[in-house]
Amino acid sequence: MKITLIGPGKTGKQLIALALASPSNNTVTVLARSGISHASLQTYQNNPHLKAVKGDINQIDAITAACKDSDAIVICVGHTYNDPGIPLVETTVRNVIEVMKKTARKRLVIVSEIAFEWSSVTKATSWSLRMFLKWLLDNMLLDHQRAEKLIVREKNWLEYTIVAPPMLIETSATGYVLAENALPPADNFALSHQDLAACLLDLVESNTHLKVKCGAVSKEAKDPFSLIDRHNVWPVIYMCARNAWYKYASYAGILISIALGVGLLTLFMKK
After folding, report:
1. d(CA 44, CA 47)
2. Distance separating alpha carbons of residues 164 and 191, to the nearest angstrom
3. Angle of CA points 151, 157, 163, to nearest 5°
4. Is the separation of the CB atoms in 28 and 5 below 8 Å?
5. What number of other Cβ atoms are within 10 A of residue 142's Cβ?
6. Minimal CA–CA distance to 90: which of 58, 63, 66?
7. What's the pLDDT tens digit per position in 221-235?
8. Which DSSP state fits 226?
9. What is the CA angle 126-147-3, rounded to 5?
């Protein structure tokens, strides 16, 4: 099977490894700004089943070169921060759909964001956590929502699957549970990058769950906030401050947001 990957980040890197190790004899083509020299690809530079196209999501010619012969296209593009005015995912989806129309490609699998309105999400999380995440990630969520609308608009011909994981964590694979239009009834709110990659590859190879949005969680119960410690709590606090600067453009707003972030994280860590 010929797979195109757009977004060779943490999940994309795991997807490459799994796809190349699969007995399905996959060939993976990756769109990357630095081509084959991208950090995620260096291990596989001499692998004949891996190809790299140098370019980014704004270059239609590069996207066309990466996708023109694919059986399936996987998008793992995501934001580093919640900065406003950066429609990264929407732009990616818009350009990929344009190329898919021109090259008669139909299968698309994309990583998106969880739907906070799902009843399974409201049952698995506290109100304070949902409000905090919506505040912290509002621009990211809006970008993903707009991208999803572009996808669903093409449902007459596009065979898509939107995968919505909860919090992604740096742990070993334990397996995943997938459900359509809901987070599976699992006692956790987390999924490892490796398990998400396995989920994406399974969807591509099995060609199932077409034209739906699915939730995915780890099979093994994980409380993501139990993994937060004094070493990795600071990036969350920094994101709170950065978010407040764009929202309120004032140092008072930043201080209030940091206090909010520290307070909420302390509350979650006690659970």
Report:
1. 5
2. 10
3. 40
4. yes
5. 16
6. 58
7. 665 555 555 445 566
8. G
9. 105
